[in-house]
Amino acid sequence: MKSMNRLAILLIGFIFSQGIQAQTRKLTLKDAIQYALENKADAKKAKLKVENSEYQIQEVRSRALPQISAHGNVTYNPILQLNALPGDFFGQPGTTILAPLGQKWSSVGGVSLTQNIFDQAVFTGLKAARTTREFYQINQQLTEEQVIERVANNYYQVFVQRQKLTVIDSNYVNTSKVKEIIKGQYDNGLAKKIDLDRITVKLHNINTQRQQLINEVQLQENSLKFYMGMPIETQIEIPQTEFEVTPHALSEQPDSTQRTEYALLKKQEQLLDYQKKSIVAEYYPTLAISGSYNYIGQGPKLPLGAKSSEGVYWSDYSIIGLDLKIPIFTGFGTRARVRQADIELKQVKEDMQETKLSLDLAYENSKTQINNSIITINNQKENVRLAEEVLSDTKNNYYNGLASLTDLLDAENSLVEAQNNYNSALLDYKLAEVQLIKAKGELKTLIN
User: Fold this and answer.
1) Is 211 helix (H, G, I), strand (E, B) or coil?
2) Does this model's pTM top 0.85?
3) Which CATH class name applies to 24-75+120-284+327-447?
4) Distances from the Cα of 393 to the Cαs of 167, 177, 412, in angstroms?
5) What's the CA angle centered on 446, arms 441 and 447, to 5 degrees?
6) Rounded CA gap, 250 and 254, in Å?
7) Residue in 289, 291, 297 with CA at minimum distance from that of residue 318
8) Per-domain boundaries in the chain
9) Where this protein primarily resides, as one coarse class (predicted)?
């Protein structure tokens, strides 16, 4: 019976472990970026804005198309208005007679049409609407680039944090081996208790650092999942691959006016220009044609369904007209709005100059950071190699009684420090590389 229970427990454990593995998602940088572009709210909203711009164009276009509507009403006049009429109409010259005009009931139904013939604001609005669509398309591209940048930065930070965790795990294993050797020596009377206590304290400190680093890794992974639009509870695994550290082509200064940030401001300038033109259009006259066809019924009772024999009479009538509106004086309100539009245009021009300067600065800074990071990485790689040699020699000397425990612990600390410095330099390089790729307008190459 016990063996059956043990088998059932093992089976349940196996199924549970398989379920956990099935939920773990392996992520390369390309996978992480692709997932973010499809699931992050910012990317989705940018796509919706592009879609919405099509409806904005349709809305403006509708103002240039005929407006057709049907109407109808029923009116009851409990007291008819009396009108003072000359008595001549009634065979009573020289008198005035109060006579009601109209009927107690009237009902009208008809169709009306209005068509703009000339309205400068409508024509300008159509051009502005098409430019708005282009604006949101550029904005979508900029949003995607921002998503890529955030995901790439957080992805590299998670990777490096995990590398640091690997370093501290290795340090813990090595220190544990040293502890076992010292314990054996102590048991045989060849080592002091203080040495065993010191190495035990070192292990406890390493374990504490490891727990702190595990927490930092988890927090960093949560940030990555947030920027990807991925459920926080999803388990992720980042493949253990070596980062490529290679010099970049830094000789050519990229044209910052071709960057998405600058193009967006350029399109915004175009929109503000159309906004100004739409205000200026208020100085122009407008001309529209309108027409309607109606059917009216009048009588002493409700006309609907009534006949002429009941005193209800129906007739039709139609109207065709031209509506011309010529602005003459608007209290200088239009002029003030035009001048406000001029100020907004000047402001966006200043923004464009500032953005160009900022983009050029970002390129130069990333280029400098790349060069410095490569130098630092090479130095730290050599430091790691030397620290490994020093630790190996110190271990041999310690085991042969030629070095103290302090020398051994110092050598271990130096190696860990060198490895962490190397990983930090690697992170600085990758972050600078992202900024360099961004400065060259090539962030989307990260998903190719």
Assistant:
1) helix
2) no
3) mainly alpha
4) 20, 16, 11
5) 120
6) 9
7) 291
8) 24-75+120-284+327-447
9) membrane
